[in-house]
Amino acid sequence: MKWITVVLALLLLHQPAWAQDSEARAREIIDEAARRTAGFQDFTANLTMTIRDADGAGRDHEMQVQVLEVPEDGQRTLLIFDRANVRGMMILTIANRDGRRRQYVYLPSTRSTREVATSRQSESFMGSDFTYRDMGAQDFHGYTYEYLGEETVGQVSCHKLERRPTDDGSGYDHQVVWLDTEAYRVLRVDYFDGANELLKTLELDGYQQYAGRHWRPDRMVMTDSRSGKSTTLAWSEYSFENGLTTADFDPRRLGRPR
After folding, report:
1. pLDDT for 42-99, tens place per residue?
2. Fewer CB in 10 Å around end: N or C, the chain?
3. Which of 208, 139, 150 is nearest to 180 (CA)?
4. From CA 105, how far away is CA 249, in angstroms rounded?
5. How many other CB atoms are found less than 10 A from the CB of residue 150?
């Protein structure tokens, strides 16, 4: 029995080291992905969101997207709606590097801006399979990571990581992320609840490189694993370094002439 006790003791001693190695490897990958993503300053793009039910019937929303990189402090994302019944509606997301997010909605019908409560950021965005939080900056901060190994997505070799949000407002218990081993682009994200049940899957494809260094997808598809519904985000007309500033993302200025 003594040798069993010794073996168990050795296993317990080595388990934390393995966990630390896994976290260190994951952090190494994420730091490199963040480094490659950083430095864009700002960009704008056109976005078409198509919401489809399980039978394939769909409806579209047209938006303009503006994103500002704030060094050492995260990102700002502004969605401006073009569709007639919601034209002029704006949604501003202020995402900090520590994972905290503030969101604001401007309603042109009342010319008023209200802050979205943290508890509501995990609700469906415009009836889509994305949440309000999902529609904000997709960055690498605000999570703890664990390295799960390498795996292919389609024919592409990827790093596979598990990440858990450090705040309570994400609406997900944990996620599994696949980044390609060549350019560290996110190709897929699986979202899970606390019972480890798959909630939905995000797939990103059609990546193109802008200004010789900024990789961005042309398409993002979020599929609900339970209902079979899906929502597609089709991106076009990316433009980088437009001279946007934090003043363009001030909640108090939403709805004013730009």
Report:
1. 999 999 999 988 777 788 999 999 999 998 788 999 999 987 668 899 999 998 877 6
2. N
3. 150
4. 12
5. 11
**Domains along the sequence of the chain with CATH:** 36-253 (2.50.20.10)
User: What pLDDT is attached to residue 16?
Assistant: 55
CA 245 to chain centre: 22
CB 200 within 8 A of CB 222: yes
For residue 96, what are its two tokens?
């900090």
Residue with tokens 């503030």: 102
For the chain, the 3-state helix, strand and coil shares in percent, each to the nearest 5, are 20, 45, 35
Q: How many Å apart are CA 247 and CA 172, to the nearest integer?
A: 32
* pTM for the model: 0.87
Beta bridge partners of 31: none
Query: Residue ranges of the alpha helices (H) in the chain?
Result: 2-37
Backbone angles phi, psi at 122, to 5 degrees: -90, 5
Which residues partner with 46 through β-bridges?
Answer: 64, 236
> 233 pairs with which residues across the strands?
49, 220
Rounded to a whole number of angstroms, the CA Rg of the chain reads 20
Query: Percentage of the chain with pLDDT > 70?
Result: 90
For the chain, what's the residue count?
258
Q: Are 161 and 30 in contact (CB under 8 A)?
A: yes
pLDDT in tens, 173-213: 999 999 999 999 999 999 999 999 999 999 999 999 998 99
DSSP, collapsed to helix, strand or coil, labels residue 196 as: coil
**Residue (of 52, 42, 90) closest to 214 by Cα position:** 42
Q: Mind listing the pLDDT tens digit for each residue in 143-154?
A: 999 999 999 999
